[in-house]
Known about the structure:
Layout: H1 71-80, H2 84-106, H3 114-133, E1 144-145, E2 152-154, H4 155-160, H5 167-171, E3 174-180, E4 197-199, E5 202-203, H6 204-219, E6 224-229, H7 234-240, E7 251-255, E8 259-260, E9 262-263, E10 284-285, H8 292-299, H9 301-307, E11 312-317, H10 327-334, E12 344-350, E13 360-364, E14 367-371, H11 381-385, E15 392-401, H12 402-410, E16 419-424, E17 430-435, E18 449-452, H13 464-471, E19 475-478, E20 481-484, E21 495-498, H14 505-510, E22 517-527, E23 529-532, E24 537-546, E25 551-554, E26 559-567
Parallel strand pairs: 2-18, 3-6, 3-11, 6-7, 12-18, 21-22, 22-24, 23-25, 24-26
Antiparallel strand pairs: 1-13, 4-5, 8-10, 9-17, 11-15, 12-15, 13-14, 16-17, 19-20
InterPro entries: Nucleotide-diphossugar_trans, UDPGP_fam, UDPGP_trans
Pathway: Glycan biosynthesis; glycogen biosynthesis
Catalytic activity: alpha-D-glucose 1-phosphate + UTP + H(+) = UDP-alpha-D-glucose + diphosphate
Amino acid sequence: MGPAPAGEGEVAPLSPAPSQPPPGAPLSDWRPPRPGWGRLLPGAEAALPLGERGAGRAATRPLSPEPPRAPSDFSKAMSQAGTSQFQEVIRQELEYSMEVELDKILATAPQNEVEHTKKDLDGFKKLFHRFLQEKGPSVDWGKIQRPPEDSIQPYEKIKDRGLPVNITSVLNKLVVVKLNGGLGTSMGCKGPKSLIGVRNENTFLDLTVQQIEHLNKTYNTDVHLVLMNSFNTDEDTKKILQKYSHSRVKIYTFNQSRYPRINKESLLPIAKDVSYSGENTEAWYPPGHGDIYSSFYNSGLLDTLIGEGKEYIFVSNIDNLGATVDLYILNHLMNPPNGKRCEFVMEVTNKTRADVKGGTLTQYENKLRLVEIAQVPKAHVDEFKSVSKFKIFNTNNLWISLSAIKRLQEQNAIDMEIIVNPKTLDGGLNVIQLETAVGAAVKSFENSLGINVPRSRFLPVKTTSDLLLVMSNLYSLNAGSLTMSEKREFPTVPLVKLGSSFTKVQDYLRRFESIPDMLELDHLTVSGDVTFGKNVSLKGTVIIIANHGDRIDIPPGAVLENKIVSGNLRILDH
């Protein structure tokens, strides 16, 4: 006698999925079997936001907790997939598995964090969905064209139009946004990179506040500063903001999203709960500065600023000391010559051989598009790096309309390519991070424009080699802004390469009794155990190499001009 049928109101047990599709059944209705699993119903419910599942969803749940997928299962299935239908089945399985894990993580959130965590995980889910849909490079190389001449304007042409008639009025419509999510770990520092001292004990953040305060005092205006922090930098940054409470700058902060890192093999999150401690310390990451649009909107700050009459944001990396408010560009935004305002302006500058990997503006399907090296098919990477063909790169100094951001966010119309960033954690686990870049949204805005600006507007400090340049007499500091010294006879910046002994800021500072005179320097390479005494002068090309086990002490007052110093030179106190 067979089992009795389920009574009214009861749920029939889920039957195991067959190992292959039933004869005549469409492949799209079939799911690969998994031990202890019920058959998954087809459909697009995996695309719904977390917590918004339709009736009957429970019928798709496994009877027992979801087992972790064996690392090779998906990769084998994908490599053996013979049809697009089968690949779609695998993608749906991956999305479902991810959704189950995200639900488990969301369930661990404290009540006061549920709403915020849910927004983050929903954003991640959308990104993961797109990641599974993409196949190969995201650009068709044959469609890439040079931008039309009028789509990238030379800065000189913008400058020729002059300053705004009413500087105070246009500045009152501007907000400065600094990307402040990064740590100083690449320079051996703990905490936010923005808190590293770069000039006369002033930090990146100090200089930023000084610049804006100078604007506000000079023009009797009210330019706000907004910091986009990450969960890595928010607490330390907020503590330090107290020191600016009496400055003439109104400072706001908001946090970019927090997304779970994905195991490279299983494509499942490595986080077990929402915490950021213990085993979970490495389980989360900030998903790149392209997250600014959604996190800015979700924070409520976007609406607040629009309500105050603000119209544009000037976005830049906080470690780019050349990214200051430019009144000529602002005038072009507010008073365009053709009467049609730009929604998005990207500052680009001419490539040097040091910038060959930088993203470049192109014309793609009748729109300006930022193309990054990661999107380029391997066969065309050398062509992409060509300084003669792709002559400009993105400085990440961006001027964007607030009302346009609001419109596009509400239409879910901001399209940015996904950057897949592989990482190896301290324990050796290989993970991937899905990220986006703020400049990639250029194609989503109307009437976008590139402006080819002087190199002086791109002065990033990524390494101690960069730090040496900005700490030297090559630059003068005035009201938080660094400008090339008038005493330097030519405007190019020297090429400086400091070896691994200088990587950490503490080690770097210990090796210089004072920063050398570099006004006439063209090229400096330092390798090995090298120290510099006071009042050293470097000119032309200087190469200093201390072999392993040797040490070179450059004596106080030394003048090195077009010299190679090698071997062992010790200076000891008598």
